[in-house]
Amino acid sequence: MLKEYSLQTSKRNEMKNITQMVYEAIEEAKFSKGYAIVYCPHTTAAITINEGADPDVQKDIINGLEKLAPPNAGYFHMEGNADSHIKSSLVGISEIVIIENGKPILGMWQKIFFCEFDGPRNRHFFVKVQNG
Q: 106, 20 in Cβ contact below 8 A?
């Protein structure tokens, strides 16, 4: 089963918690065991799994990525968002989540995030749920 979701980002760099949307896709698929692939089709955004209990973790991740790929650092790409492309490549555009007993296996503090690096924008992502 393939499900597409849309979301609106509000900042140039932000992490939006999409865990509930992934849970919904898994519930709709009605698979007891398998996996879900969460995929972002954008070159300046990403998907990651990390701590969701403390919002400062997301701030730290964004700040750390800013240090690795600061804006306006003399890049060749002329659109002004080369740092966004680099951040997307560093984080990655997909995650795989194992499904057991109809639920995703995530650690106690883990959440799934859509990472925006060139916002604000209207974005979308996909969740592919496979039986297995």
A: no
CA distance 85 to 5: 22
CATH number, domain with residue 21: 2.60.120.460
Count of residues in the chain: 132
pTM: 0.96
Q: In this structure, how many other beta carbons lie within 10 angstroms of the beta carbon of residue 43?
A: 14
Number of compact structural domains in the chain:
1
Per-residue pLDDT tens over the stretch 70-118:
998 999 998 999 999 999 999 999 999 999 999 999 999 999 999 999 9
What whole-number distance in Å separates Cα of residue 81 and Cα of residue 86?
9
Q: How far is CA 42 from CA 28, 53, 65, 105, 121, in A?
A: 25, 26, 18, 26, 11
Structural domain range at position 70: 2-131
